Amino acid sequence: MNKKLKIIFVSLIAILMTIGNVTAAKAADATEKTDIKITDFTITDYYEKEKDSYAYNETLRLHLTWDASAYGDDLKEGDYFNVTLPDNFKFPVGHSATHFDVLSPDGAVVAKAVVSPGEKNGGSVKVTFTDYVNNHQNIKGTLNLQATFSDVTHNEENTFKVLVGTNTYTTNVNVSGPVGINDEFVAKWGQAIDTDENAVQWIVRINHMKNNLENVVITDRLSADNDDIGSMKYIRDSFKMWEVTYHENGGVVDWGEPISLTDRVTFENNDTEFTINLKDLNLGNKQYRLEYKTTYEPGKRLRNNVELETTEKTKHTTSSYKDASSSGTGQGDLNNKIKIVKVDADDNESKLAGAKFKLTRVSDGKEYEFTTDAQGEAVSEKLVAGEYKIKEITAPVGYELDSKEYSVTVKDGEATIQTVTNVPLKINIPVEKKWIGKQADSITVHLYADGKDTGKTVVLNADNNWKDEFKDVRQYDTSGNEIEYTVKEDKLENYSSKVTKDSNGGFIITNTNTETIDIPVTKTWVGKPTDSVTVKLLADGKDSGKTLTLTESDNWKGTFEKLNKYDEKDGHEVNYTIEEVEINGYTTGISGSAENGFTITNTISGKVSIPVTKIWKGEAASEVQIILYANGEEVETKTLSKDNDWQYTFKDLEKYQDGKEITYTVEEKEVAGYTSSKTGDIESGIIFTNTKTGKTIVEGKKVWNDKDNQSGKRPEEITVNLLANGKVVQSATVSEKLNWQFSFENLDKYDEEGQEITYSVNEEEVEDYSSRITGDTKNGFTITNTYQGEETPTKTIKVVKTGDETKLMKLTLSAVLSLAVLIFIVLMKYTMKF
C-alpha cells in the first residue's frame, strides 16, 4: 500500500470514529427530565365532551397538559420524560394509538411519543424531544390518549392518577354500571383485534327480547365516510353463529350449539354486502349471537348497517368503528435568534421553502446565509444583540425575487421574527370553445390546478366569440413545482366534451352533440305480404350500414335506435332516410320522416295483356267496338275492323289495385243484325264471334183448279211443308176457313254460319190433284192444285136472287110498324076512359 492510500485510509477511519463519538456523546447527553409539571388532567368522552358521569364500557380520552418551561433553553434533542398512566384504565395497542408525533402549531415535530400499555391495565407514555428544542425555550404541550375503564367501581366516583417523576396528579369522575336491556331485537358493535390492526371484529346480538323468529333473513352492508370504502370488505370464512343465553345486561351467560351457516351466506358488491338466509330454520324464541370480521384501513371510519327481518318484525341498526388514536401538541420560544418566515403574497398561510437570505450585522458587516425549510422558516444561529439587515438573494422556485431590504433588531433573550412575502409568477390561460352540432346558449368553464378546483371560472358564449382566458394564475405551486392546469366545463346534457391543449398553453374544448334519436319504421302491405323485408338506413343519402328486418312476428314494426342526431365530424344535423331492399312483384312507397317515423307501403304489382279477336259468321259489318272493363268500370274502348285484321291487344295493364287482383272483362257493343258469343279468357285471349241474324216470313196461298169442286173431291184441308235449305222444318194446315192461305212467321233468315237460308214449300200429296208451286220467299208462294179425276153431272138448284130478298124484308118491316101504331092508339083510349 503506497503512502497516499495509507493517508486516505487513516483519514476515513478518523472521520468514522469522530461520527461515532459524536453520536455516542449525543446519546449519552440525553437525559430523563422529571421536573415536568402536569398543569391539567381531564377525562372526557370519545368526542372530547366532559360529562357528570361515564358509562363503565365507554370509550374515553385522557387530556394531559404538561409544562417543561422549568428547563428554560437547557433542553436538547433526545431529552425525554415519562408519564405513568392510571392503572384503572386500559390502553389500546394499535400503532396509531401508541406512536404519535407531538406537533407545534406550524407543524414542526416537537417530540416523539410512545405509549406502552400495561400487560393488563395501565401503562406509561414516553415523550422524547427532537431538535426543535435546540432553537426554542420554555417548551410546553399536551397529550391526548384514548382508553377505556378497567377495574373501576360502578355507580360511584373513582380516582385516577398519573405520575411524572415523583409528582402525582389526580382527577375524579363518576362511573355508571351496567343497565338492563329492554325490548332489544337486534344490536351490533365493532371492536379492535389486538393482534391485527388491519381487521375488525363485529358482534351482532340477536333477539334479546325473545320474540318468535320465523323466516329469518339477516342482511348487512359496509359503508365509509365520503363513500371511501377502499379495499375494506367482509372476511368470508369468519362468519360464526351460536344459540346463546344472555343475562339482563346483554352479556353471554351460556353458549349453546353453533348454527351452521354453510351455503346460507351470499356476498355481493365486491364482498361489501351479505345476506344470511335462515328461512328454513325454526329459530323460535331463542337468543343468538353472530360474529364475523372485516378488513380495515387504519384511520378510516367504517360503518356497518345490519337488518334483521322476520315474519313478525324487521329491525335495522347501524354501528361504526374507527381505530384508536392519540395525539399531542407542543411549542416554545426562540432563543436570541432571527426567524424569517417566508410566505406567499397571495396566501400568507402558504409557507415557502427554498428562499435564500443574506443576513448582515450592521456593526461590523459580518454576513450569514440561511435558507427556508419545508415549513417556510429560516432560523439563524444564536446572534449578538444589535442591528441587522435581511436581503433575499434567491427566490423560491415560481416566485419573483423580493428586492426589499429589511432592518431588524436582535435583543438578548428575545426572538426576532420577520415575515417576508414573495409574489408568485403568473400566467394567462386562454380557453376556446368549439361546437360540433347544435350550440348551447353558454357554457361555464372551471380551472383546475393539479387536479383541484381553483374556484376560477369563465363563461363562454356567442358574445365573446366563445373565447376567454383565465388571467393572472400562478405558474408554480408553493413547493416550486410547475402547476399542471386543466379545465372542466359544466356538464351539458347530450354533449360529449374533448379538451385539447394548443401550442400557447391554452385549451380548446370541443363539444360534440351526442343527442340521439330513434326512428320507428312500420311496414304495411297492399296485397299478400312476403315472409320478411330488409330496410336500410341512409345517413345524408349514404348507406349507414344499419338495417332492420321486419316480419309478421314483430307486427311488421322495428326501430333504428340511438342514432346520432348530429354528424360527428362537422356537426350538421344528419338527414336520415330509408330504403327497402327490392321485392320482386311489389312496388314500394315510403312516407313519413325521421322525426315522426317512416311507413313503407308495399303494393303487389304486375302487368297483364289481353288479346281480342273478332270472327264473323256471315257477312261482316264494317267495324265493331270492344270495351275493356276493370272491376266493372269502363277503362278503354277500341274499334276492330278489316284494317286491323279484326284484332287488338290491351297491353301493359296493371294486374292489381290496392293489393287486390283486378278483374278485367271485355265486352263488345251490340251490332244490329248479329248475335255475339264470347269465348276464351284473360290469360289466353278473348274471341268474339258475330253471327249474321234476321227474321223472315214465308207466305203463300192455295189455288184450286177443279171447277169449284165440281167433282166434290176437294179435301177440306191440306198440309203445306216449309223447307229450309231443302229440309222440312215446319208444317202448316191450310183450309177453306183460312181462305186457303198459309204463313210461316219469325223464321231465321240466316243459319249458324251466318249464311242466308233458302226457304221453299211443298205440300203433302192431294189425291186426284196435281200440284204446281210458283213464286218465291220474297213474293210469296202459290200452290195450284188441278183436279185430275172424272167430271160429275150438274144439279139444278133455285137460287133466290138478291133483289127479291130485299123487297120481302121491306114489306115485313112495314107490317110490324103498322101493328105497333094500332096497339098504341088502343092503349091511349083505354087510359082516358078511366
TrEMBL record:
Q: Can you give the residue ranges of the Collagen binding domain?
A: 184-312
| Biological process terms in GO annotation | cell adhesion
Residue spans with biased composition (Polar residues)? 321-330
One Pfam family for this entry, by name? Collagen_bind
Which residues are in the SpaA-like prealbumin fold domain?
A: 337-421
Q: How does it sit in the membrane?
A: Peptidoglycan-anchor
> Which keywords annotate this record?
Cell wall, Membrane, Peptidoglycan-anchor, Secreted, Signal, Transmembrane, Transmembrane helix
- Describe the location of the CNA-B domain by residue ranges: 429-512, 519-603, 610-691, 698-786
GO terms for MF: collagen binding
Signal peptide (UniProt feature, chain positions): 1-27
Give start and end of each SDR-like Ig domain: 57-151
Biased composition range(s): Basic and acidic residues: 306-315
Q: Where in the cell is it found?
A: Secreted, Cell wall
List the transmembrane segments: 808-828
Protein name (record): LPXTG-motif cell wall anchor domain-containing protein
Q: Which organism is it from?
A: Kandleria vitulina DSM 20405
